[in-house]
Specification:
nucleotide-binding, Rossmann-like_a/b/a_fold, ATP binding, alpha/beta, Rossmann fold, Universal_stress_UspA
Length: 290
C-alpha cells in the first residue's frame, strides 16, 4: 500500500490538503503521513515548545483520521527550513505524492515565486498536488495540459495511472500559438482569412496531438485544443472552465542547467492563479496514489 505525504503548517489552509489527501487515500486504498517543519532559526526553548505543541496537534489529527475516517495515518515533526525539511522527508520516505495547501494570497500583491510551495514544487522529485479548493467530494473531472515536449509526454504516463487509480475522467488539453496572426492583423488581412488560418493551425495541431496520444497509455475522455490568445496559462484555465475540471494537471520543466532554477512560466502561472486544485508533475515523476 502506498502512502500519501501531506505537508501542513497547522493553518486552516493546510486543512484543505489533509481533507483532499483523505479523499485520495479512500479512493486508492493508500495510507497518509503528515509532516510539519518547525523553524530552527529561533531559541532552543521556543523550538522545543513548538515541537511539543505540533506533536500534540498532529497526533490528535492522525488518531482522528484513523479512528473516525478509517485511514491509516502516521505523522512526523522535523526542524529546519520548511522547504528543505519537506524535501528531505519526501526523499527519505520515497513518497509517490506530496499534498500541499494553497499558497498564501495577498489582497494587493499575489506572490507565488519564492514561496515555500513554489520552491518545493520546483525541486521535488515526486508529483505535488496543491489543494486550492475546499474538498467536498472526489474529483469529478481533470484537465491534463500538455505540449509536445518530452517532459509533457512523459507526464501522460503518470496521468494514465491517475485515471486508473482515481477513476476520474481526464481531458487532454493543448494551448497552441499562431504567431502569424499578429503579422496578418498589421497587414490588414481580413478577419475571415485570419480565422481561416487559425482553423488550419488548429487542425494540424489537433492531428499531431491525436497521433502522439495514440502511442501513449492514456485514454482521455476528450481532447481539446485552444488558441493561446493572451497566454498559455490563461488558455489552460479557460479549457478547465470549459470542461468543468476541478483538477488541472501540468508538467514542470526539466532539471538541468537554467531549467533547474525555474519552475516554468506556464506551470508557475497556473499554480499562482488557479482556483481549482493543481497537480504538478516533474519530468521523471513516479506514479501517484489516486
Amino acid at each position: 500500500m502506498q502512502t500519501i505525504l501531506v505537508a501542513t503548517d497547522l493553518s486552516p489552509r493546510s486543512d484543505r490538503a489533509v481533507r483532499r489527501a483523505l479523499l485520495l487515500a479512500r479512493a486508492s486504498g493508500a495510507s497518509l503521513s503528515l509532516v510539519h517543519v518547525v523553524d530552527d532559526d529561533q531559541p532552543r526553548a521556543v523550538i522545543e515548545a513548538e515541537c511539543a505543541a505540533a506533536e500534540r496537534i498532529l497526533a490528535d489529527q492522525a488518531r482522528s483520521l484513523q479512528e473516525i475516517d478509517g485511514v491509516e495515518c502516521a505523522h512526523h515533526i522535523t526542524t529546519g527550513d520548511a522547504f528543505a525539511g519537506i524535501l528531505q522527508v519526501v526523499r527519505e520516505g520515497g513518497y509517490p505524492l506530496l499534498v500541499l495547501g494553497p499558497h498564501r494570497r495577498q489582497l494587493l500583491r499575489d506572490v507565488f515565486v519564492g514561496t515555500t510551495a513554489e520552491r518545493v514544487i520546483r525541486a521535488c522529485a515526486a508529483p505535488v498536488l496543491m489543494a486550492n479548493a475546499v474538498p467536498a467530494a472526489p474529483y469529478r473531472h481533470a484537465l491534463a495540459a500538455v505540449d509536445f515536449s518530452d517532459s509533457a509526454m512523459h507526464a501522460l504516463d503518470v496521468v494514465s495511472r491517475i485515471a486508473a487509480l482515481s477513476k476520474v475522467p481526464i481531458t487532454i488539453g493543448h494551448a497552441f500559438d499562431a504567431p502569424e496572426t499578429g503579422l496578418m492583423k498589421r497587414a490588414a488581412v481580413a478577419a475571415a482569412d485570419i480565422d481561416l488560418h487559425v482553423g488550419e493551425v488548429k487542425r494540424d495541431v489537433t492531428a499531431e496531438l491525436h497521433a502522439r496520444l495514440a502511442k501513449m497509455p492514456v485514454e482521455p475522455a476528450q481532447i481539446i485544443t485552444r488558441l493561446a490568445q493572451a497566454s498559455t496559462a490563461a488558455a489552460i484555465q479557460a479549457m478547465a472552465r470549459e470542461v468543468g475540471a476541478d483538477l488541472v494537471i501540468v508538467g514542470t520543466r526539466g532539471r538541468t542547467g537554467l531549467a533547474k532554477a525555474l519552475l516554468g512560466s506556464v506551470a508557475e502561472a497556473v499554480l499562482r492563479n488557479a482556483e481549482c486544485d493543481v497537480l504538478a508533475i516533474p519530468p521523471m515523476a513516479d506514479t501517484v496514489s489516486g
